[in-house]
Amino acid sequence: MLPVLDLAADPATLRPALREAAHSPGFFYLVGHGVPDEEISGILALARAFFALPDAAKAEISQLKSPQFRGYSRLGGELTNGAVDWREQVDIGPERAVIPGASGYLRLQGPNLWPSALPAFRPAFERWDALLAEVGLRLLRHWSVSLGAAESHFDAAFAREPATLIKVVRYPGSAENPQGVGAHKDSGVLTLLLVEPGSRGLQVEGADGRWIGADPLPGAFIVNIGELLEVATGGYLRATRHRVLAPAPGADRISIPYFLNPALDTRIPVITLPPELAALSRGVEADPGNPIFDTYGANAWKSRVRAHPDVALRHHGIEPIQRP
Fold this sequence. Notes:
Layout: E1 4-6, H1 11-23, E2 27-31, H2 37-51, H3 55-59, E3 71-73, E4 78-80, E5 83-85, E6 88-92, H4 121-146, H5 155-158, E7 165-172, E8 179-184, E9 190-195, E10 202-205, E11 211-213, E12 221-225, H6 227-232, E13 242-245, E14 252-260, H7 275-278, H8 296-307, H9 309-316
Parallel strand pairs: 1-2
Antiparallel strand pairs: 2-12, 3-6, 4-5, 6-7, 7-14, 8-13, 9-12, 9-14, 10-11, 10-13
């Protein structure tokens, strides 16, 4: 089982445990986070309400209408490693104006698409963004100290227009496609994942290459580090590959990952590790098929255009990568 960490614990106990959990499995359960139970149950119920809407109501906010890759992706409308993911979802980012004349990753900034059939959706998820940003920043401050840096090491990177991302996801059962979402690493700093109680499917790749089940723990978020935190620690902390298996036919699963990221044009500040930790660093993974950038927007752009080639082509003229 993955480690269970309590954010309300004594920092002297929490910080070394946090450092080791992220250095080894790269995933852990987080309790003591302070997010009220009623907020958790309410956001899951709202997700269910959205996916129960008629197809036309969901298509009203189709991601194909958004150059910012926001809104609803139909079932089978996303790819990982060139293969179809069997899920439907809504992508929500910070509500901001488009940057005039923007190109490349700066085009990720802009407005969201909100479902008119569900007026409660927008305020609830904007509140969720604020709640989870606070949890994520608390984690980052504890991590900073545990790695020998000042508690405020990452503060400046998140002080100006952080580019957070929320995905509201439904995995329906499938007998034909076992890939809920294919094996991947997250492109940002850290992820706080809420999974519907009693569901299964998330798997984490162990050091030996075997897949470890990460079923939900009541009241806990599942936390993993992203590629930018790997960059910030010179590879002492490594982003871990993970995947989701589609549920059995007749079942489904709701999942709401929250991705904490700095501003699009922010280069993640690197920590100078103490010698005893630096000696254990594995370096940032060098994979020609998945380059890791130190600027969040570049890393996010890489992921978005691969995952949604239809949006990339329609709004940005980017031709899909032809795989052999």
